[in-house]
Amino acid sequence: MSAAQIATGEIAVGQLDLEYVVAARLTLVAHAHARGARLTVNGHVAVNDAAIRVGRVHGITRDRRGFHVHAVAMINVIEMAPERAVLDAGNTILGNTIQSNGQSGVAVCCAGVTNNLVRQNSISGNGAAGIDLVGSNGVYGVTANDPCDTDTGGNDLQNFPVLNYAFDVGGGVIVNGSLNSHANTSYRLEFFASDVCSGSGYGQGKTFLGSANVTTDGSCNANFQTLLNSPVASGQFVTATATDPNNNTSEFSACAPVIAFRLLSIKRQENDVHLMWTTLAGKTNIVQRAFSPGGSFADIGPMIILGGTGQITATYIDIGGATATNYYYRMRLGP
Question: What is the CATH number of domain 261-333?
Answer without folding.
Answer: 2.60.40
